[in-house]
Amino acid sequence: GQNIDQPTEMTATEGAIVQINCTYQTSGFNGLFWYQQHAGEAPTFLSYNVLDGLEEKGRFSSFLSRSKGYSYLLLKELQMKDSASYLCAVRTNAGKSTFGDGTTLTVKP
Amino acid sequence: KAGVTQTPRYLIKTRGQQVTLSCSPISGHRSVSWYQQTPGQGLQFLFEYFSETQRNKGNFPGRFSGRQFSNSRSEMNVSTLELGDSALYLCASSPDRDEQFFGPGTRLTVL
Q1: Is the pLDDT of residue A1 over 70?
Q2: Both ends of chain A: CA-CA distance in Å?
Q3: Chain segment B30-87, per-residue pLDDT in tens
Q4: What residues of chain A, 66 to 95, have a C-beta less than 8 Å from chain B?
Q5: Which of A32, A39, A64, B35 has minimal CB crowding within 10 Å?
Q6: B42-66 burial string, b = 16+ CB within 10 Å, else e?
Q7: Per-residue pLDDT tens for A88-107?
Q8: Distance between alpha carbon A30 and the CA centroid of its chain, in Å?
Q9: Nearest-angstrom CA–CA distance, B90 and B45
Q10: DSSP assignment of B25-54, as one string?
Q11: How confident is the model at residue A27 (pLDDT cuts 50, 70, 90)?
């Protein structure tokens, strides 16, 4: 089976940098996704990593280490609108995606 | 391009009834996945359909079933509803094994 762990809650200050970690255990790893979900809305895609290293996309970056079963999402220059739940999802070779329970990020002024 | 649409958006049913939810994926997307989201359990994978075939299945009882039509539209059916089935049901479409695009969800309440 698959097991995905991420912190339940995090708080950060507007303008700061925050790192949300995700650890996973899976067989047949085929990619890791990060999604953002605002309260009452559907998740939206943020980033995708399949090879080790850092993927940068504007204020958001995501890192993957397959040997350690570890990823993080880095959010820079935090804005109030970044307050949301951030979901880590692992996909297997069979195409099945398993989501973590999500990290609720609160950005304070 | 139109996004993923789900109908109905809200539904109230009573225990023992059955329900059918519908999902229309983004045009050209052949993969449709269904998820159940509850505050306590997070996003739980139900099943995935690709080109009218169930490609993956989660760990839900047989009361939960689905199908996909030739135009990629998908339906999910839950029979003999239980109180614990109250949840937000999300549908996500994808070209294949790529990032998923989620619909707004159907909020099901079982009384």
Answers
A1: no
A2: 41
A3: 999 999 999 877 899 999 999 999 999 999 999 999 999 999 999 999 999 999 999 9
A4: 87, 89, 91, 94-95
A5: A39
A6: bbbbbbbbbeeeebbebebeeebbb
A7: 999 988 888 899 999 999 99
A8: 16
A9: 10
A10: PPTT--EEEEEEEETTTEEEEEEEEETTEE
A11: confident
**Of residues B86, B74, B58, the one with CA closest to residue B5:** B74
Residue bearing tokens 């949301």: A84
Residue A9, min C-alpha distance to chain B (Å): 14
Token pair belonging to A31: 């990619």
How many beta carbons lie within 10 A of that of residue A86, not counting itself? 25
Measured distance CA(B41)–CA(A46) in Å, rounded: 22
Q: What was the pLDDT predicted at B93?
A: 95
The Cα–Cα gap between A24 and A9 comes to 18
Q: Is B105 in contact with A100 (Cβ distance < 8 A)?
A: no
- d(CA B63, CA B97) in angstroms, rounded, equals 26
For residues A101 and A20, what is the distance between their CA atoms, to the nearest angstrom? Answer: 13
- By C-alpha distance, the chain B residue nearest A32 is B99
Residue type, B98: D
The CA angle A46-A48-A54, to the nearest 5 degrees, is: 100
**pLDDT tens digits, one per residue of A74-93:** 999 999 999 999 999 999 88
Q: Does B97 touch chain A (CB under 8 A)?
A: yes
